[in-house]
């Protein structure tokens, strides 16, 4: 029982990160109709951002995360403006190919700057485990889980209760009608992409201290994000949260009880199972926001 | 206030508007009638900036708006209540209304506008927190009108507000449009229901395959032999 709870909690922590990756990717798809293959590279670069600031330069961990988020928000805006906006009237595969190109470019830039050897960010918090009943939790894992929770809740509150958030939802539901309200679709796209980029970078910075950091780590992160988006239903915000948490828990239980070799296969098993039994995603109706 | 001069609009190779000229004066209710595919919606889309004229000019209070962005055009006070209503289905009634006022700077004034819209359409007040997608067709049309009114538009354009509604609701829409007109709102009304439109309007334009074939006071258009046989069924 204690072991099961331990796996469950570890799974929820990783799942929170998958959910973060998933909501960004699913909104970028839902609002911009862009299938973003660089999402994993934004995650990888976020981890390297924290490595550089925290490990190499001695900036406090939380401040490193904030600075990384701000930088990648701007970086995402620039990518939207320079690469995606000019391709907006093209068929969906054109911007998709552009993001594949971008992901290769970014992974190689990281190889040049940081070389291929995996690096340790180091522990930002004391390593002592907190014993809660039968399970033990390390401060970093607790921090990661609550940070993911706060970011997901914050994104939800922003979309639900601010005027700009409501405009983003309106654009998601009917782009032409939104434009008729005077909502600037370019601005909505830019903010959505920048926000998705920043949140993927934070996800990398959060998981960085728990695993190792290396330039090709984005590929696995991308494929898991896609698993989450597909299982949750394309463009489905609550679906992505649910699928992210489920994937984290399933991986953790699968690795614990079957074999850790299966960990990365579970994402694909999840996609196949969901597509067979609930082809429009876990929550049924695809494309839902709010 | 609004003037289109020799406007040509294309969808790819489809020549949808052919040298269309029309004008609307402040406080007028002008209607655009015509059959399916005549170019009525295209005219409204072009005024809103959703389609661009290839040739010709569009001015609003003397200012050229033919190259302005949709956002800038809305900010000038041109609202459109589009064909098929196009309310945001997963937003609540109030959120839909809020989107209508998206570009307005005087957000503290909005309360007054909500109250006014709710007194015009009490049913919307009852359904305030419901999602727009759960409303009936007539209620959605009321919401679409309310949403357009939230801009406090200087020019309000309706695209087929009676489409798909039961006769009693068509009558209700006609009353509302008439009321708004009497309050001094400038209105451009597009209708296939030429009967209703000509009854409400001061002046009318008749579009056929992208061309203005007739214009004049509603009365003179109503009396036109061709219009009577083609659009009024007598
Ligand atoms: N997106 C589009 N792409 C290509 N052609 C279009 C498009 N929209 C409209 N058209 C064509 O332009 C012409 C005018 O269409 P428009 O929608 O303006 O007509 P309408 O008068 O509003 O008709 P309706 O009464 O059916 O609403 C039609 O021939 C139509 O087929
Ligand atoms: Mg039409």
Question: Mind sketching the topology for me?
Answer:
The complex is a heterodimer of chains A (290) and B (234).
Chain A: H1 2-32, H2 39-56, H3 61-84, H4 93-114, E1 130-132, E2 135-137, H5 139-161, H6 163-173, H7 175-180, H8 185-207, H9 218-232, H10 237-257, H11 266-277
Antiparallel strand pairs in A: 1-2
Helix pairs in contact in A: 1-5, 1-6, 1-8, 1-9, 1-10, 2-3, 2-4, 2-8, 2-9, 3-8, 5-6, 5-8, 9-10, 9-11
Chain B: E1 2-11, E2 14-24, E3 29-34, H1 40-48, E4 55-60, E5 63-64, H2 70-75, E6 78-81, H3 93-100, H4 110-120, H5 122-126, H6 137-149, E7 155-159, H7 167-182, E8 186-191, H8 194-200, E9 203-208, E10 211-217, H9 218-222, H10 225-231
Could you explain the architecture of this structure?
The complex is a heterodimer of chains A (290) and B (234). Chain A has 290 residues and is an all-alpha fold. Chain A has one domain (2-277): ABC transporter involved in vitamin B12 uptake, BtuC (Orthogonal Bundle), CATH 1.10.3470. Helices cover 71% and strands 2% of the residues of chain A. Chain A is built from 11 helices and 2 strands. Chain A has helices spanning 2-32, 39-56, 61-84, 93-114, 139-161, 163-173, 175-180, 185-207, 218-232, 237-257, 266-277, and strands spanning 130-132, 135-137. In chain A, strands 1-2 form a two-stranded antiparallel ribbon. In chain A, helix 1 packs antiparallel against helix 10 (237-257), helix 2 (39-56) packs antiparallel against helix 3 and helix 2 runs parallel beside helix 4. The radius of gyration of chain A is 19 Å and the shape is globular. Chain B is of the alpha/beta class. Chain B has 2 domains: 2-77 and 153-231, 3-Layer(aba) Sandwich (Rossmann fold), CATH 3.40.50.300; 86-151, no CATH class. Chain B contains 10 helices and 10 strands. In chain B, strand 1 (2-11) and strand 2 form a beta hairpin. In chain B, helix 3 (93-100) runs parallel beside helix 6 (137-149). The relative contact order of chain B is 0.18. The A-B interface holds A 163, 166-167, 169-170, 173-174, 176-184, 288-290 and B 48, 50, 69-71, 73-75, 80, 82, 86-91, 95, 98-100, 102-103, 147, 151. The structure holds adenosine-5'-triphosphate and magnesium ion (MG). Residues 11, 14, 16, 34, 36-42, 83, 192 of chain B line the site of adenosine-5'-triphosphate (ATP). Magnesium ion is lined by residues 40-41, 83, 159 of chain B.
């Amino acid at each position: 029982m204690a072991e099961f709870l331990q796996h469950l909690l570890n799974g929820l922590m990783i799942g929170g990160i998958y959910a973060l990756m998933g909501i960004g990717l699913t909104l970028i798809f839902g609002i911009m109709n862009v299938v973003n293959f660089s999402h994993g590279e934004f995650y990888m670069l976020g981890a390297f951002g924290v490595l550089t600031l925290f490990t190499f330069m001695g900036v406090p961990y939380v401040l490193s995360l904030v600075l990384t988020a701000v930088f990648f928000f701007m970086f995402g805006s620039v990518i939207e403006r320079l690469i995606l906006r000019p391709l907006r009237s093209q068929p969906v595969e054109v911007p998709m190919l552009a993001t594949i190109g971008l992901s290769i470019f970014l992974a190689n830039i990281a190889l040049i700057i940081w070389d291929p050897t995996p690096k340790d960010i180091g522990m930002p918090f004391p390593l002592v485990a907190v014993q809660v009943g039968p399970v033990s939790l390390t401060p970093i894992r607790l921090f990661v889980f609550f940070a993911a929770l706060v970011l997901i809740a914050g994104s939800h509150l922003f979309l639900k209760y601010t005027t700009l958030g409501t405009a983003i939802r309106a654009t998601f539901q009917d782009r032409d009608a939104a434009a008729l309200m005077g909502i600037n679709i370019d601005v909505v796209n830019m903010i959505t992409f920048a926000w998705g980029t920043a949140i993927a970078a934070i996800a990398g910075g959060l998981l960085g201290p728990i695993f190792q950091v290396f330039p090709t780590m984005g590929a696995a992160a991308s494929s898991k994000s896609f698993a989450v988006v597909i299982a949750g239903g394309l463009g489905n915000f609550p679906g992505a949260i649910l699928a992210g948490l489920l994937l984290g828990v399933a991986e953790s239980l699968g690795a614990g009880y079957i074999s850790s070799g299966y960990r990365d296969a579970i994402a694909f098993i999840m996609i196949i199972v969901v597509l067979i039994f609930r082809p429009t995603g876990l929550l049924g109706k695809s494309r839902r926001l709010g | 206030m609004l003037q289109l001069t020799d406007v040509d609009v294309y969808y790819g190779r489809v020549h949808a508007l052919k040298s269309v000229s029309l004008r609307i004066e402040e406080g007028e209710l002008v209607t655009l009638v015509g059959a399916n595919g005549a170019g009525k919606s295209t005219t409204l889309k072009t005024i809103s900036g959703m389609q661009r004229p290839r040739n010709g000019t569009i001015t609003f209070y003397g200012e050229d708006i033919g190259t302005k962005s949709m956002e800038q055009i809305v900010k000038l006070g041109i609202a459109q209540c589009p064909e098929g209503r196009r309310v945001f289905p997963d937003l609540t009634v109030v959120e839909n209304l809020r989107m209508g006022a998206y570009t307005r700077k005087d957000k503290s004034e909005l309360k007054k506008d909500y109250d006014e819209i709710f007194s015009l359409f009490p049913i919307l007040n009852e359904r305030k927190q419901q999602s727009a997608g759960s409303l009936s067709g007539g209620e959605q049309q009321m919401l679409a009108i309310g949403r357009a009114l939230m801009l406090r538009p200087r020019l309000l354009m309706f695209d087929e507000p009676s489409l798909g509604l039961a006769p009693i609701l068509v009558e209700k829409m006609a009353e509302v449009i008439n009321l708004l007109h009497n309050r001094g709102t400038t209105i451009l009304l597009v209708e296939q229901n030429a009967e209703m439109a000509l009854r409400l309007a001061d002046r009318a334009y008749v579009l056929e395959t992208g061309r203005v074939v007739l214009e004049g006071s509603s009365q003179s258009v109503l009396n036109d032999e061709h219009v009577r046989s083609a659009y009024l069924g007598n």
